[in-house]
Design a protein that fits this description.
Rossmann fold; Dihydrodipicolinate Reductase, domain 2; seven-stranded mixed β-sheet; five-stranded parallel β-sheet; about 30% helix; globular; binds NADPH dihydro-nicotinamide-adenine-dinucleotide phosphate; binds N-acetyl-L-glutamyl 5-phosphate; Semialdehyde_DH_NAD-bd; NADP; EC 1.2.1.38; amino-acid biosynthesis; cytoplasm
Amino acid sequence: MDIAIIGASGYTGGELMRLLLNHSSAEVVTATSRKLDGTPVASVHPHLRGLTDLTFRNIGAGDIDADFVFLAVPHTAAMKVAGTLVERGIRTVDLSADYRLAKDVYEKTYGVPHEAYFKAPYGLPELHRDEVRGASFVANPGCFPTGATLAAAPLAKYAHTIIYDSKTGVSGAGNAPSATTHYGNVGDNFSAYKWTNHRHLAEMKQEVARLGSDARCYFTPHLLPVNRGILTTAHILLREPMEQEEVEALYRKFYEGEFFIRNQRPTLAAVRGTNFCDVAVESEGDRVVAVSAIDNLVKGASGQAIQNMNLMCGFAEDDGLRSAGMLP
Ligand SMILES: NC(=O)C1=CN([C@@H]2O[C@H](COP(=O)(O)OP(=O)(O)OC[C@H]3O[C@@H](n4cnc5c(N)ncnc54)[C@H](OP(=O)(O)O)[C@@H]3O)[C@@H](O)[C@H]2O)C=CC1
Ligand SMILES: CC(=O)N[C@@H](CCC(=O)OP(=O)(O)O)C(=O)O
């Protein structure tokens, strides 16, 4: 199957190409960039040199010749081309935020009008597999909501309050230089940002509601001096206390058969470069602490996008995604 990546010069575009090298049925044939037309892909993704001969092309969605597209451009840019891809019948996973939320929630959260709204399944396969399977356009979740929601999902309907406290690596901000991610400001440092109003809170609330819960949700992200990974500590305040064994049994049952969810003490190192989400829980009665770890560029973006593609196209769900992490 021929794949095109729109926005292939960015971090998630590079990660899609890296992961798809190991896919049995999908091959990237087009990698677009507005600025790098004619330049070898390996010039901005040097880790792919010798593994791909592709050069970037500056072409629009109307000129793409592929069976499947990944949209790896910023929000508001994705909505400008999504309609063309749908009209042309090209199956698509959008990695941006443009189709993750209801229209009114999107417009309020992102502060822009949605120019081309339609409903799309929310591509968190562990929660919405049946909607993703067979869909022609899927909205890939945000990186923080992926780790946070997977940490809390089994207990959401027993909670009155969920507080997500996340620590992320800098690649979550994309590859464009900024003062926030400048080495001198991030290296040997640690800080919170958007303490109460990060745009991903809307996705977290949406998913908790879809799990049949009216729990209040709060979220504070922190920036770690690492390149990849998100560790989320979810403080789940329960309506009725639960013992450790009961909580563990609930998580075991909820994630039974889920290859990408592993039950072990979450660390960033163990999931780095992989599509795994490691989750563990500890109860102190009326508060359960659930911790998750993901790689923001893999389970938080490109790996989950490929997992969704696999479901949409009837491939094995783990095709291209069985690689182990790297330790130490
Ligand atoms: N980084 C992460 O951890 C995650 C990212 N995402 C989402 O995935 C998408 C891609 O993210 P990421 O790869 O990190 O971003 P990057 O900034 O690294 O790359 C995005 C690429 O899109 C192209 N681009 C930028 N602006 C526009 C525009 N207005 N129109 C068309 N193309 C544009 C640029 O390529 P060029 O200038 O060469 O055309 C750029 O290299 C974003 O929507 C992001 O929010 C989602 C989850 C996690
Ligand atoms: C470190 C850092 O800046 N992280 C980004 C993660 C956002 C992201 O990638 O999510 P979307 O897919 O919704 O754009 C942030 O906090 O905004």
